[in-house]
Amino acid sequence: MGQTFVITETFQARYASLLPIGRWVSRLAEQAGFDEKDSYAVQLAVDEACSNIIEHAYGGDGSEGLIECTLRSEADRLTIILRDWGHPFDPASVPAPDLAADLEACPIGGLGLYLIYHLMDEVHFEFGDAGNVLTIVKYKTKV
Length: 143
Description:
Blueprint: E1 5-12, H1 18-31, H2 36-57, E2 66-73, E3 77-84, H3 111-119, E4 122-128, E5 131-139
Antiparallel strand pairs: 1-2, 2-3, 3-5, 4-5
Helix pairs in contact: 1-2, 2-3
């Protein structure tokens, strides 16, 4: 069934942090009781989200920004909360990618957000004084 826990870790908002974040998330998803396939889906969604935070919230790899990652395992789900203090963005402003277009014709951007929405069961964005908060949820059994 997996363990119930809440763990928070803070990482530098740098591309070099993506591998340690991914390993951390994968290990905790497995501890929470997810199989390898769903653990990978969670890890990939977090990787895409953190890449977007680094690139868009903080303007790239040279920032001194932080990404606060909280994982909460419950009986039926894993909730991941990613918080940053960079520039907010409107996810509704990102057009859906044209998956039928030739790779050369595809505009850059939008695929990461598309993946997050399709890999996870819930996706919520909040922007305010407490920073930018992305909450993503993966259910152990589909609801």
